[in-house]
Design goal:
Elements lengths: L13 H8 L5 H11 L5 H13 L3 H13 L18 H11 L6 H11 L1 H11 L3 H11 L4
Length: about 150
């Protein structure tokens, strides 16, 4: 059987792929799950891909799920890219982290603490911003008042 040929049963690792598709703090794992699940046309998988297409915080994951569903022949439309905060109150979260660090801390220390304390925030924005993530995060950090 060709790798690209659609399979109608569930993959042996379906439960793991389902968990992977639900990992909020790792958009790359969700993307990998979309790619793997997209090889298996099945109503359970279509449900997972539809949920990701409509609700994932990272637009790249939404687009990938949309492409797989289209390939399956599903009548779907790509949702518009979300405007504003991808995670509610992200500015407050970032400010709280900055305030928790000692005066004179570096951007790298801030970035590291964000990654440790709020991996979901870090991962979502890193996935959304791509190559511009560090610049965006540093601008956010610099815009907050010093202690």
């Amino acid at each position: 059987m060709k790798k690209t040929e659609e399979k109608s049963t569930l993959p042996e690792n379906y439960e793991e792929l389902k968990k992977q598709a639900n990992r909020n703090s790792n958009w790359r794992e969700r993307m990998d799950a979309v790619e793997e699940l997209g090889k298996w046309k099945n109503s359970q998988i279509i449900d997972i891909l539809t949920r990701l297409m409509n609700n994932d915080a990272v637009y790249k994951v939404q687009e990938a799920a949309f492409r797989k569903l289209k390939k399956f022949g599903e009548d779907v439309e790509l949702p518009p890219r979300k405007k504003g905060d991808l995670i509610k109150d992200v500015t407050k979260v970032l400010l709280r982290i900055k305030k928790s660090l000692p005066a004179g801390h570096s951007f790298d220390e801030f970035k590291e603490k964000l990654q440790k304390m709020r991996l979901d925030v870090y991962d979502t924005y890193e996935g959304d911003k791509g190559a511009d993530f560090d610049k965006w995060l540093e601008n956010m950090w610099a815009s907050f008042p010093k202690k």
